[in-house]
Amino acid sequence: MQPSPFNVMLSYQSLSRSLASLGVECCTQIFDDLMQAYKEPTRFYHNNQHIMDCLSVFSKVHHLAHQPAEIEIALWFHDAIYDSKKDDNEEKSAQWACEYLQSKGVKPMVVSRIDELIMASKHHQAKSLDEALLVDVDLSILGMPSLVFEHYDQAIRLEYAWVNDVDYQKGRLQVLQRFLQRDVIYQHLEMRQRYEKQVRENLREKINHFQSSK
């Protein structure tokens, strides 16, 4: 599902505002390049709708951020490069972001923080409060109502269509179990209050489904 023209307009405005706060005048070229990247036909979840959803969730918790503009830019770039057969997507996405920001004269310290924000999404581990917030936003899909979670799970399966069912279920089961074994899945209290209960219900239901179908 593609985002509506209205949501696309709002997302352009948000990117423009975030870049402007770093002293960068947003041109339509970087926006168009990012939108085009997220439209690649092999993307069923990691697409531009995912970015719109992340921005929507972040808009509700941006008051928790120390550097909200940096998080928003990192959200835009964090899945800009995506190939389910590769394991360096975050590195390449961060490289694209850093090269773009450096070309616009953004301060090295800011570029470095955005690089670290994007890389925090690789293993969903954080070293700062802003990184934790970005990870929480990226994982918010796990805590959505069960039907939304199921649609997400099916989309992930399509992105890994090249993996046979046995291997996919084994790998997916391990990923979901690791999340469920965490003491907390969302690191910010406000995000836990919003999503923690539902995410554990979703994970248990999906894990039980995989285990019963063995």
The strand count comes to 0
Stretches with pLDDT under 50, minimum 5 residues? none
Distance between the termini: 31 Å
Fraction in beta strands: under 5%
Rg, Å, rounded: 17 Å
The geometry reads as globular
Question: What value does the average pLDDT take?
Answer: 95
Query: Structural class of the helices, strands and pairings?
Result: mainly alpha
Largest sheet: none
Number of domains: 2
Helix content: 55-70%
Order of helices and strands, N to C?
HHHHHHHHHH
Explain what the structure shows.
The protein has 214 residues and is mainly α. The chain is built from 10 helices and no strands. It is globular and about 55 Å long.
Features:
about 210 residues; mainly alpha; globular; 2 domains
Furnish the topology, listing elements before pairings.
Elements: H1 5-21, H2 28-37, H3 48-61, H4 68-77, H5 89-103, H6 108-123, H7 129-138, H8 146-159, H9 165-180, H10 189-212
Question: What's a concise summary of this model?
Answer:
The protein is mainly α. Helices cover 68% and strands 0% of the residues. The chain folds into two domains: 119 residues, no CATH class; 71 residues, no CATH class.
